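Good morning,

Attaching, inline, the backbone tokens for the sequence recovery test we're adding to the shared suite. The designed sequence is right after.
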């Protein structure tokens, strides 16, 4: 594998870095966090102007026709700025599955608006991610003229901003995915604020009707679509966590160099050096595993195990980094208004999204066990390891 970025990918990263650095400095982010929606609409418009919202949208719908790798470059820069905009929700949870599984009518209706910054999307994946068998919590009764939905999808990222939410459902005993208007009759949003101060409402569905034209993946297709969506959603989270930890380590190093005790910079003490070095190593592990997963997904290689490894590292190592960098700031690190605290909150939120570190290890173990069962008895490295 070769993780060397192309000139086009370097341009994407630099463009995203410039937009976020110019419009998501800590004071502005704090101001946005005090608004009801906790959404920086001006920053979102700038991302659209920079052609960053259409990176993975097909060219026939106004996008650039690129892939997950380019989206991860943008998400990494968002993590560095801890910027309150629904890039992950709209582009990874929404636009990618629409481009892959949507009908021509669905793609034409929603994707050009995503590129222009006029349409925001999301998906309700928490229950599916927490289920060992990817069983959706929402039930769908297939009736003549539509699907009637019952149930609740919890903590849907920025659903209050979304024109449509991709909702996994159980229909006729099988998984499916439908497009739901959160403002439709029978649908309601209950405000919920997450650890990182963003709004992820609960979507209650009490008889909401979905037109057959809004079915993204029907029974028989839903399981495959959900696996595809979860792999990309988890990899996108890893990219955000990479940006969060990179910047948290940079800020901690800067603070330790500036602060002095006993006439020496704090960075010269062995205890602080070792703690910072551990945080740096953890960040590099997040980087390598995340790009490995993104590369496999973009090149069509088997990726489920790589995604599980990357998600575990981003969750487990990510929370270690944000804890360490907050502690290295001493007393000021506990100040909830000080910028490093926001990185701590984002790192903790990502740790438990789409599965905890423990559940991810269990999922990886199941994948490895399944692979072992596929081998011929008494042959291969699994058999050697068993002996």
């Amino acid at each position: 594998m070769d993780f060397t970025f192309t000139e086009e990918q370097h341009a994407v990263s630099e463009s995203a870095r410039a937009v976020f650095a110019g419009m998501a400095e800590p004071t502005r982010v704090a101001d946005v966090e005090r608004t009801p929606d906790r959404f920086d609409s001006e920053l979102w418009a700038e991302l659209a102007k920079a052609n960053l919202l259409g990176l993975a949208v097909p060219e026939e719908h106004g996008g650039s026709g690129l892939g997950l790798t380019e989206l991860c470059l943008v998400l990494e820069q968002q993590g560095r700025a801890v910027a309150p905009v629904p890039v992950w929700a709209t582009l990874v949870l929404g636009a990618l599955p629409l481009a892959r599984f949507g009908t021509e009518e669905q793609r034409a209706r929603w994707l050009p608006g995503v590129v222009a910054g006029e349409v925001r999307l999301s998906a309700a994946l928490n229950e599916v991610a927490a289920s060992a068998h990817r069983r959706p919590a929402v039930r769908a009764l297939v009736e003549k003229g539509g699907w009637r939905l019952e149930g609740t999808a919890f903590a849907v990222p920025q659903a209050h901003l979304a024109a449509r939410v991709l909702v996994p459902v159980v229909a006729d005993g099988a998984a499916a995915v439908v497009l739901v208007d959160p403002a439709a009759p029978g649908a309601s949003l209950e405000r919920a604020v997450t650890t990182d101060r963003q709004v992820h409402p609960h979507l209650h569905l009490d008889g909401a009707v979905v037109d057959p034209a809004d079915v993204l993946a029907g029974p028989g297709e839903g399981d495959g679509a959900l696996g595809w969506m979860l792999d990309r959603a988890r990899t996108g989270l890893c990219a955000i966590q990479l940006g969060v930890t990179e910047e948290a380590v940079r800020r901690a190093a800067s603070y330790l160099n500036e602060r002095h005790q006993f006439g020496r910079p704090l960075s010269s003490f062995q205890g602080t050096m070792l703690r910072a070095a551990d945080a740096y190593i953890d960040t590099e592990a997040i980087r390598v595993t995340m790009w490995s997963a993104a590369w496999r997904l973009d090149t069509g290689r088997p990726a489920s195990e790589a995604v599980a490894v990357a998600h575990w590292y981003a969750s487990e190592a990510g929370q270690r980094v944000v804890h360490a960098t907050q502690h290295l700031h001493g007393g000021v690190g506990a100040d909830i208004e000080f910028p490093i605290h926001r990185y701590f909150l984002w790192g903790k939120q990502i740790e438990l999204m789409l599965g905890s570190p423990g559940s991810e290890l269990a999922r990886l173990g199941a994948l490895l066990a399944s692979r072992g069962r596929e081998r011929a008895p008494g042959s291969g490295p699994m058999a050697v390891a068993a002996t």
